[in-house]
Amino acid sequence: MSRFMNQKFAALEAYTPGEQPKDMQYIKLNTNESPFPPSKSVLDAVNSKEVAKLNLYPDPVCSTLKKKLSELYSVKPENVFVSNGSDDILNFSFMAFCNDADHPVKFPAISYGFYRVYAELYGVSYEAIPLAEDFSIRVEDYLGNNANVVIANPNAPTGLALSHAEIEQIVRANPDFVVVIDEAYVDFGAESCVDLIDRYDNLLVVRTYSKSRSMAGARLGFAFGNAELITDLEKIKFSTNPYNINRLTLRAGEAAIDEDAYYMENCKTIATIREWTQEKLRALGFTCTDSRANFIFAKHERVGGKALYLALKERGILVRHFDSPAICDYNRITVGTKEQMETLVKTISSIITKE
Fold first, then answer.
1. Which of 28, 46, 108, 110 has the highest local Cβ count within 10 Å?
2. Model's pTM, two decimal places?
3. pLDDT-derived band of residue 145, with 50, 70 and 90 as boundaries?
4. Given 191, 225, 258, which residue is the final one in a domain?
5. φ/ψ bin of 319: left (φ > 0), alpha (ψ from -120 to 50), beta (otherwise)
């Protein structure tokens, strides 16, 4: 840290993204990317004609993309916000709706690490609420909190999901505070609560193209909410970086909506592979949560989480391990292709036999 660094950030612990090593070719099951490529229309959209326009700024309002998203999800364009990945939207949400005086924030203690980072970055009081013993989120912990609420549904890294009714209960119980539901993984088997935005003006639903639409490298996210909430987010965006979605990503995002059926079919395939893999892992002595995401959260009865992670990495397979004591026995395993998961199961079986 330089001597010029603002001292209020001196103790900030930054978010640690999944490793991206270049030392060898890995089967990459550590960052929850889709194993499937973008649709043909997306590849066609990012063509030489569009590249030739890179001397021109993109549409800062993202009007075409907003219209397509509003039609797909049966909402109005004024209920849609678009930004540079869902992380960007979460960042703007903490800026717009949280403060240390009277709008603190609550979120699960085991969840997406950026929630804690954003709270500390902006000096917002927060409470990280422990999960139940089975890693589930206890709805009663988020009722009438006098605080904003941020929940990933399904949660990460556990993969467990709350029902539509449970989410509505939380939103209804906090009418004077914003409830942010991070639905990054919802397309793999959980219930979306987008339909609730017309009933509750305090609900913001955040989505991403990174997981179910095979565009993690494009950085594109979107959110749904009451028009006034969306206006708040637009104000923050236009006060920081109005052109934060590049021209090629915008075109790719628009084209992906036109082939939504392709992506939703891929999500079903991933869910099927997830269930197959969990069955095989359980037969090898693993405990797995009931994941509704595109990853598996599992621990073995005899081999520690870090030991398994290191053994897999040595053999060319990357999974995600967390050092937090509450979950250090577990690994989060992204669901890849059937062939990749067959290789994973075979490799794990050999590791366990050796151990």
1. 108
2. 0.96
3. confident
4. 258
5. beta
The total domain count for the chain is 2
Using alpha carbons, select from 304, 351, 352 the residue that is nearest to residue 329: 304
Residue percentage of the chain with pLDDT more than 70: 100
- CATH number, domain containing residue 70: 3.40.640.10
Best CA proximity match to 68, nearest among 259, 266, 263: 259
Could you say which of 237, 258, 279 is where a domain stops? 258
Q: Give 3-state DSSP helix, strand, coil % of the chain, rounded to 5.
A: 40, 15, 45
What backbone torsions phi and psi does residue 89 show, to the nearest 5 degrees? Answer: -70, -40
Residue 250 sits in the same domain as residue 308: no
CB atoms within 10 A of CB 70: 16
Mind listing the pLDDT tens digit for each residue in 315-343? 999 999 999 999 999 999 999 999 999 99
**Residue-range definition of the domain harbouring residue 76:** 40-258
Residues 28 and 89 in one domain: no
pLDDT digit string (tens) for 34-61? 999 999 999 999 887 889 999 999 999 9
DSSP state letters, 26-86: -EE-SS---SSPPPHHHHHHSSHHHHTTTTS---TT-HHHHHHHHHHTT--GGGEEEESSH
Upper half-sphere CA count for residue 150 (Cβ side, 13 Å)? 31
Residue 291 has pLDDT above 80, yes or no: yes
